[in-house]
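re: ur question from earlier - yeah i can do the single chain one, its not a big deal. heres the input i used so u can compare w yours
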Amino acid sequence: MGGPGFRHDQDAFIAAQVRSDRLHQLFHQSFPAIFGSFLAAIMLCGLCWERFDHSVIFTWIGLLTASSLLRLLMFVAWFRCPDSERTPQRWEKKYGVTLVLSAGIWGAGAFAVMPANDLLAQALVMLFAVGMSVSAVSCYSAYRYMTLASIGLVLLPCTLWLLFQSSAIQVGMALAVIVFASFVASATRKLAEALETAFLLTREMERAHRIATYAAQTDELTGLKNRRAFFEHAQQLFHDCQHNRLPLCAVMLDMDHFKHINDT
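and the output i got, formated as C-alpha cells:
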C-alpha cells in the first residue's frame, strides 16, 4: 500500500486535483473579463468617436458583442453543469478557443480603428490595449499560456504597426509597449508558478490531514475503528437521531479470548 506504485498513484491524483483547481479559479476569476473587454472597447470608441471611422466602429462592436455572448453562454453552461462534469479535459480547450477569439477580435479591431495620422488617438488606443493586457494578467493567471496569448493578440497588431512608422513618437510608443510586455511575460511565469505551488501545497496538506485522521481513528492491528473514532461517530449519530426523532440502538458484544485474537 505504501510502495512506489501507490505513491505514484497518489501524486497523479494530486496533480489531477491541482489541474482541476486551476480550472475552477480560471472560471470564477475571469467572469468579469467578459464585460470588461466589451466596456473598454465602448469607452475607447466613445472617447474617439470623432476620430474613428464609424463603419469600422460598428463592425468591431458587433463582432465583440458576438464573441462576448459566446463566452457568456460558455460561462452559463459551466456554472449550470454538475461538479462531476467540470473537468479540465472538457473545458480547458473550450475556454482557450473563446478567449483567443475574443482577444483576437479586440486586437484586430483596435488596429482597424486606429487613425493613421492622429497621434492622440493612437496613444489612447495603446493605453486601452495596455490596460486590457494588465487585466489579462489578473484574470488568467492560473494559465500562463492563456495570459500570454491574450496579451499578444491584443497588443501585437497595433504595436507592430507603430514600430514601422516614420515618427519617433510612434516608434517610441511601440518600444515602450514591447518593454512593458516583456516584464509582464516574466511576471506571468512567476505568478503561475506561485499559484501552482499554492494549489499543490493545499492538496498535500489535505492528504496529510486525511492520513493523520485515519491513523488517529484506526486500530493498527485490526484495521478497525478505535475507541476515539467510535465515540466521535456515535456522538454525531446520536445528535442526528435526536434531532430527526429517529430510533437508535447500540449492540455490545463480549468476545471470548479476544486477547489471543488480537495478538495473532
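Residues 4-205 form one domain. not sure if urs matches, ping me
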